[in-house]
Design goal:
By secondary structure, the chain is an alpha/beta fold. The chain has 13 helices and 13 strands. The protein folds into two domains: about 1-160 and about 340-355, Glycogen Phosphorylase B (Rossmann fold); about 170-340, Glycogen Phosphorylase B (Rossmann fold). It is about 40% helix and about 15% strand. Strands 3-2-1-4-5-6-7 form a seven-stranded parallel β-sheet, sandwiched between helices. The protein has a six-stranded parallel β-sheet with strand order 10-9-8-11-12-13, sandwiched between helices. Helix 1 crosses helix 13 and helix 3 (about 65-90) crosses helix 4. The longest helix has 25 residues, at about 65-90.
């Protein structure tokens, strides 16, 4: 099967698409994949490192833009649809998959005009703008959450879960030994979380010397966070700009402090890891809050709104959980029970079903 995957911009959109591509290439000797994204998105850095092909188009986002800027996007949208059409005609995919992000819309529009089979995958509990607009006429809509409200034809919707990077299904159970805290805020970091964790450290002095923290800060905050750890008298060896091996990071952790992006939640549930979730308050349609509520309602995580994330509150939550292994194990079990294993293969099965 020749599969074209459109979208990206963030790790939450890109990594599920990578999982689909890797699974297809591993299963079918004659399979071909092509990603379409933008030169500014994370895909422009990650995909070459993975040896996966990328074509780019010129397009930006509409969410949060004023009316004049939205109107000014009109000519660029037409250009991006034309660019997408040229890419599609050259690659001649069997199926076009939209995973969200700026590039997804123009490519799916061009695919529709060419009469190609189309599928969209929604990672979040709330539909993104592109998927809300295009979901009514694509051939299939794959959802990650049972709770997703999707006013589309039920005959075209299927809950598949969110595809995971290779190895995530094989994460070991919660480890024994001294506590490990994993902190990250997405592929680019999260300044609010970075600052709150540094300010939290003096309130966790009873853990100093035995609590190991692996903290992904993003490149911009790296030096400031390292300095904050050292000033508080904590080891800064685990403060890093980016974590390449997320499976190893999850495997050694007892508790995770993070945002509530869809890919993160899929990995937490696949690995069975308890979490304190701080939804990004400015996410489109506040979808991260909906994501976090889906896990918190089932006892797999605690949700802490960013507006309530004081150093004292954060230290209280982290400290109480790390000192209560029985509760961590209960949360881990609830998280693991929510994991939807085999999501990549289920989506690929839907791709094969709509292939003409």
């Amino acid at each position: 099967m020749k599969l074209l995957l459109a979208g990206g911009g963030t790790g939450g959109h890109l990594f599920p698409a990578v999982a689909l591509a890797q699974r297809l290439l591993a299963n079918e000797a004659d399979a071909e994949v092509l990603f379409v994204g933008t030169a500014q998105g994370i895909e422009a850095r990650i995909l070459p490192e993975l040896g996966l092909p990328l074509a780019t188009i010129k397009i930006g986002g509409l969410v949060g833009k004023g009316l004049l800027r939205q109107l000014a996007m009109g000519p660029r949208l037409l250009t991006s649809v034309w660019q997408s059409r040229q890419i599609l005609k050259k690659f001649r995919p069997d199926v076009v998959v939209g995973v969200g992000g700026y590039a997804s819309g123009p490519v799916l529009l061009a695919a529709k005009l060419l009469g190609l089979p189309t599928l969209i995958h929604e990672q979040n509990a709330a539909l993104g703008l592109t998927n809300r607009l295009l979901g009514r006429w694509v051939d299939r809509v794959c959802l990650s959450f049972d709770e997703t409200h999707c006013p589309l034809s039920p005959g075209r919707m299927v809950v598949t879960g969110n595809p995971l990077r290779l190895g995530m299904d094989n994460c070991p159970p919660l480890p024994n030994g001294e506590p490990h805290l994993l902190v990250f805020g997405g592929s680019r970091g999260a300044r609010a979380i970075n600052q709150a964790v540094v300010a939290m450290l003096p309130h966790l002095e009873r853990f100093n010397g035995r609590l190991r923290i692996l903290h992904q800060t993003g490149s911009e905050d790296l030096e400031a966070v390292r300095a904050g750890y050292l000033q508080a008298g904590w080891d800064a060896a685990g403060v890093v700009p980016f974590i390449d091996d997320m499976l190893a990071a999850y495997a050694q952790s007892h508790l995770v402090l993070c945002r509530a992006g869809a890919t993160t939640l899929a990995e937490l549930t696949a690995c069975g890891r308890p979490a304190i979730l701080i939804p990004y308050p400015h996410a489109a349609a506040d979808h991260q809050t909906a994501n976090a509520q889906a896990l918190a309602a089932r006892g797999a995580a605690l949700m802490l709104p960013q507006s309530e994330m004081t150093p004292e509150v954060l230290a209280h939550l982290v400290g109480d959980l790390l000192e209560n292994r029985e509760r961590l194990l209960d949360m881990a079990g609830s998280a693991w029970a929510l994991g939807k294993k085999g999501a990549a293969e289920r989506i690929l099965e839907e791709c094969r079903a709509i292939r003409r």
